[in-house]
Amino acid sequence: MKIAILISNAGAGTNLKAIIEAVNDRQIRAEICAVICDKPDAAGLAHAKNAKLPIEICQKKESLLPLLKKLGADFICLAGWKQIILDEVITAFPNKILNLHPGLIPNTINDFAANPDGTAGLWNKGMLTEKAIKNFLDQKSTYAGSSIHFLTLEFDFGPVLGRCFEQINDDDTVESLYARLKAKENQLYVDVLAKLTSTKHENDEIRNNSYPVKNEDLLYRDECFKIMGILFKVYKTQGGSFLEKHYQKFIAELFKEENIEFREQVPVKLKFNDKSLGIFYIDFIVTIGNAKIILEIKKHENFGPKNIDQVRSYLKAANLKLGILANFTHSGVKFKRIVNLY
Fold first, then answer.
1. How far apart are the first and last CA of the chain?
2. Which is deepest, 37, 113, 174, 337, by most CB within 10 Å?
3. Where is each Formyl transferase N-terminal domain found (predicted)?
4. Is the pLDDT score of 140 beyond 90?
5. Which residues pair with 297 in a beta bridge?
6. Per-residue pLDDT tens for 245-298?
């Protein structure tokens, strides 16, 4: 699968950089066929050059359509692109052009997207980034947010692929608020592309998430499919607003319904240099055939290094090979496979 990324001379190209890193890490299962820019002096081009990616300069809006057709991209990512996108480009690539908008686009045109606290999110239709961030502050919104959507002929509206939120502080300025929101936008773009580029699978929920299935040699691949199917079913029926302990209960019930063998809150002793550090409890050890897999559940928007280190410690203590770290968020289930290499 191929993606083309369109940038301009606005900003430093942080979305491009995040996408390049995620492609290299195989979080995004695609190749970047080209980085397209309308200005040859754009700062973001440095990221493309460092990654030795093909670069195309497209200074006329009329030249974009033939260029995209030549490249044969499966998805086209607007990442700071300022040039007008002609209607002929949008109609030629329906549900293929991704746009990042500095506002909370609703699912239907007469509705609104809710903030995490239930208040109405601001759409900021027709606003560029700086004006949009200022509008969050001027309107005294509780959250700022951005959306990634498919580009359509309706301005600043289309099928929403993901949203991110940042709580607004009393002393926030445009600069301080956008600095925090920008980091979440970078991660949102990676998450959305990971879902879109994942290999098709008979389970629709797995197909729409970022589980890499091309590699036939993945450890416990099929067993992981079954576990992830349970997690996606929980999110589909329960959403992303419950506490960690509630998701553990939901998962346990589905394991029982599917006759999947598991143990909950499994105690393990952690040691360092033969010194006991105490007893800790693994959320689940799931047994499918000959595979024993640790499943650790979290309720955050992003994984932290401590979460990953925790699963690695559990794997060593339990002498198991594979762990799944699953994170229930407002935008879906995120997960990492963690292999015990020791």
1. 34
2. 37
3. 1-193
4. yes
5. 326
6. 999 999 999 999 999 999 999 999 887 667 777 899 999 999 999 999 999 999
Q: Which domain holds residue 140?
A: 2-196
The answer to whether residues 187 and 225 belong to one domain is: no
Query: 291 and 264 share a domain?
Result: yes
Cβ contacts of 45 within 8 Å, gap of 6 or more: 7, 13, 35, 37, 55
Query: Is the residue at 302 inside a domain?
Result: yes
Token pair 């410690």 in the structure block, residue: 313
CATH number of the domain to which 64 belongs: 3.40.50.170
Q: Is 31 inside a domain boundary? A: yes
Residue after which a domain boundary falls, among 170, 196, 222: 196
Query: Is residue 105 located within the same domain as residue 223?
Result: no
Mean pLDDT computed over 24-43: 93
For the record, the structure tokens of 40 come out as 């040859």
pLDDT (average), residues 86-109: 93
Number of H helices, E strands in the chain: 10, 12
Burial pattern 40-75, b for ≥16 Cβ within 10 A else e, equals: eebebbebbeeeebeebebeeeeebbebbeebebeb
Of the residues 145, 164, 196, the one at which a domain ends: 196
Is residue 24 domain-shared with residue 126, that is, in the same domain?
A: yes
**Spatial distance between the Cα atoms of 207 and 62, rounded to a whole number of angstroms:** 35
Q: Is 252 left (phi over 0), alpha (psi -120 to 50) or beta?
A: alpha
Q: Are residues 98 and 173 in the same domain?
A: yes
**CB-based contact 333:327 (threshold 8 Å):** yes
Distance of CA 156 to the CA centre of its chain: 21
Rounded CA-CA distance 30/20 in Å is 10
In tens, the pLDDT along 174-186 reads: 999 999 999 999 9
